[in-house]
Design brief:
CATH superfamily of the largest domain: Glycosidases
Shape: globular
Low-confidence stretches: none
Mean pLDDT: 91
Helix content: 25-40%
Number of strands: 26
Distance between the termini: 67 Å
Radius of gyration: 23 Å
Number of helices: 16
Strand content: 15-25%
Number of domains: 2
CATH class of the largest domain: Alpha Beta
CATH architecture of the largest domain: Alpha-Beta Barrel
């Protein structure tokens, strides 16, 4: 039998690094974005200010000493540090957790969460994370847009990574389940070698005297044999559902959700079929400090609603036999997700947690997985999995096809538009195919009137971006570069835009 424990996801982006100074300017940390945040619409509360203007440095031991006192007082069990490990063993933002490893007198239970995507510039053709979007001033667009590349390598590289991680796994404070150190893959489905890697790491762990490793995958769509459990990653999981249900509004370019809708959807999340599922909540959400008018935010978040959320997540954990609940995040100030006290609300979020903790303090949960699925849940999840398979297949086939068009000099896109007398061109979707198209148009000197996307950041400041709920101007052609183009085209027709065409049909016409 176990008691419930709350783990807060932790961003180690509050100290100066060589990489940040090189990319975004000398001395850049996430505090830079937080301090420079501005209101984007009426009643938008920015900037967020930490209580006592405590813009701390994570390399200062006193910072962790203060955080230890705070988390213990309000019932936060431990931290889940983002882990950034890249090609050839390059590490970023690693110093805070490395220091904590050495500071044995600070009693903070912790685990690691590998955010394994490449870091890229907004306009890059490559898949990855974008940091400091508002601060990207690389107008010359040099190189491929990769800041630091991810490459998983093979057994040699896996062994080197494991050897680095082993020092943490051996730490008595490191969080374990069934005696096994917990390791989270933040983008589990984006690691092509994850099955072989996890098996190899588990074998290495046993060779080193550990019981093995407990692997949790976030941002996954269903059962994965190589994982011990999955984590419903928030706000990613719920924001996608709200976007699909059109439960959002646009205020001066910012995509806005109601926190009440967020709470309702998070509490309706179900365990994935056949695998232990951990749940996550958010106390707030506002990405405008990093993304400006391309950002997203919650409109009515409050400590009262947060308390409802925490209480509901505790009930779900008990129902599913889960010892742990995750909160995103302890200190993600640049995205409005933080439990730390601020000047506006003081300790309200932490007080909500303390109150709910007291309610469930004596509740013990069975260690055995006990969740039973309804027929409706099984049918719904199978449909989602099938849709995802179809989407990946579509993305792969059309990316390859368009890439081959770019490489074949016998087809000139500019010549095609001139022949059709198409002057004003717009693009729907700035995902992988959309970026390929946009960058090719720029390379050929073709002007892009604007882009449209339901959630992504604009590719360049010089190219306007519209959200689906906004009034969208007419152009000569709107090329839809996303899966399910028929639905998008119908929505465009409802906006009296009659010249939207799918990327597949556009390529057919280009090659005819």
């Amino acid at each position: 039998m176990n008691n419930l424990k709350l783990i807060a996801i932790y961003l180690p982006q509050y100290h100066e690094t060589e990489y940040n100074s090189r990319w975004w300017g000398k001395g850049f940390t996430d505090w830079t974005a937080v301090k420079k945040a501005l209101p984007c619409f009426d009643d938008h509360k920015q900037p967020k200010i930490p209580l006592g203007y405590d813009y701390y440095d994570l390399l200062d031991k006193k910072t962790f000493q203060n955080q230890e006192k705070l988390m213990k007082k309000y019932g936060i069990y431990g931290f889940c540090f983002y882990h950034y490990y890249f090609k050839d063993g390059a590490r970023v933002l690693e110093k805070p957790v490395e220091n904590l490893l050495q500071w044995k007198d600070i009693d903070i239970p912790y685990c690691l969460n590998w955010a394994s995507k490449s870091w890229i510039r907004t306009w890059s053709n490559f898949y990855g994370d974008v940091w400091g979007e508002k601060f990207d001033k690389d107008v010359e667009r040099g190189g491929e847009g990769i800041l630091i590349e991810q490459n998983f390598g093979s057994r040699k590289e896996w062994k080197e990574h494991f050897d680095y991680l082993l020092q943490f796994f051996r730490d008595e404070r490191y969080i374990k389940i069934d005696g096994k150190p917990v390791f989270i893959f933040h983008n589990a489905e984006q690691i092509p070698c994850i099955e072989k890697m996890t098996k190899y790491w588990a074998d290495l762990a046993k060779e080193e005297g550990l019981k093995g490793l407990y692997f949790i995958g976030a941002n996954v769509s269903g059962y994965r044999e190589e994982l011990d459990a999955v984590l419903i990653s928030e706000p990613t999981y719920t924001r996608k559902k709200l976007l699909e249900k059109n439960l959002y509004s646009v205020k001066n370019g910012v995509t806005c959700f109601k926190y009440s809708d967020f709470v309702e959807e998070m509490l309706n999340n179900q365990c994935l079929i056949g695998i232990k599922t951990y749940f996550c909540g958010v106390p707030g959400y506002d990405t405008t400090p990093r993304r400006g008018y391309n950002g997203e935010c919650l409109l009515d978040n409050s400590s009262e609603l947060f308390e409802v959320l925490i209480d509901g997540l505790y009930k779900k954990a008990i129902e599913c036999g889960n010892e742990y609940i995750f909160i995103n995040a302890w200190n993600e100030w640049g995205e409005g997700m933080y439990l730390e006290p601020d000047e506006e609300n003081g300790y309200a979020a932490l007080e909500s947690i303390k109150k709910v903790n007291a309610k469930y303090e004596m509740v013990e949960i069975p260690s055995e997985y006990s969740y039973s699925y309804t027929e409706e849940e099984i049918t719904g999840q199978l449909k989602l999995l099938n849709d995802k398979i179809n989407k990946f297949r579509w993305l792969y086939e059309n990316t390859i096809r368009f890439a081959s068009i770019i490489q074949n000099n016998s087809y000139k896109i500019k010549k095609y538009f001139n022949k059709k007398n198409i002057k004003k061109i717009s693009v729907y979707g700035v995902g992988p195919i959309g970026k390929l198209l946009i960058n090719q148009l720029i390379q050929e000197g073709i002007e892009i009137a604007y882009t449209v996307d339901i959630d992504a950041a604009r590719v360049l400041e010089s190219i306007p971006m519209y959200r689906l709920q906004e009034e969208i101007p007419q152009t000569d052609i709107l090329i839809v570069t996303v899966y399910g183009a028929e639905e998008v085209i119908e929505k465009m027709r409802q906006k009296e835009i009659q010249n939207a065409v799918s990327i597949e049909n556009w390529m057919n016409d280009l090659l005819s």
